[in-house]
């Protein structure tokens, strides 16, 4: 009898553990009403369902990133996506009231996609385009990486066994990709690394093709150069990762 109870308990624990990192999503769309010459906001992201720690972590992280993207004056106290949308529209109305000659409607488009998922890791990329006046808008990507088992967001220092060693390796690949001499200054061909030395981008994440390092416009180059991306196949980067992946 004891042995049957023990087996049942073990099976229950295994199912419970497996359930902790199981995920399902529903599409979430938040948008302003369509009208001519109006400020527009459109947000389309995957929303994690259920009440698990992981679901709450993912939804909270996505919400925080999007609120920050829509925060024009850095004084918004928006607590959710609906309030962030309304604050963006309100900020435009406030500014256009003061400067009617520069009242071209603003635009914000944010789309979230899952770029990688297995039993250990899930990565969601937020692609955004924000226009708040001027000659052009600003487009960028944000990668959010999550540990599925522990239900936590992973930051840059959480991804590597030794961050400095990886940075050295990434610089070698970056120089090769961008045709920068190995023994020359990192800005030798026109890049604009502020410290005159290589550094990792703020955004990096798991994709099906490998670990993607994404430098936003202006981060290391001019706006005209656009974003700079370095994708390292897992077969090359796995030795540096705390969460290695099958090539």
TrEMBL record:
<dbReference type="Pfam" id="PF13739">
    <property type="entry name" value="PdaC"/>
</dbReference>
<feature type="domain" description="DUF3298">
    <location>
        <begin position="158"/>
        <end position="234"/>
    </location>
</feature>
<dbReference type="InterPro" id="IPR021729">
    <property type="entry name" value="DUF3298"/>
</dbReference>
<feature type="signal peptide">
    <location>
        <begin position="1"/>
        <end position="22"/>
    </location>
</feature>
<keyword id="KW-0732">Signal</keyword>
<protein>
    <submittedName>
        <fullName>Uncharacterized protein DUF3298</fullName>
    </submittedName>
</protein>
<feature type="domain" description="Deacetylase PdaC">
    <location>
        <begin position="36"/>
        <end position="137"/>
    </location>
</feature>
<dbReference type="InterPro" id="IPR025303">
    <property type="entry name" value="PdaC"/>
</dbReference>
<dbReference type="Pfam" id="PF11738">
    <property type="entry name" value="DUF3298"/>
</dbReference>
<dbReference type="InterPro" id="IPR037126">
    <property type="entry name" value="PdaC/RsiV-like_sf"/>
</dbReference>
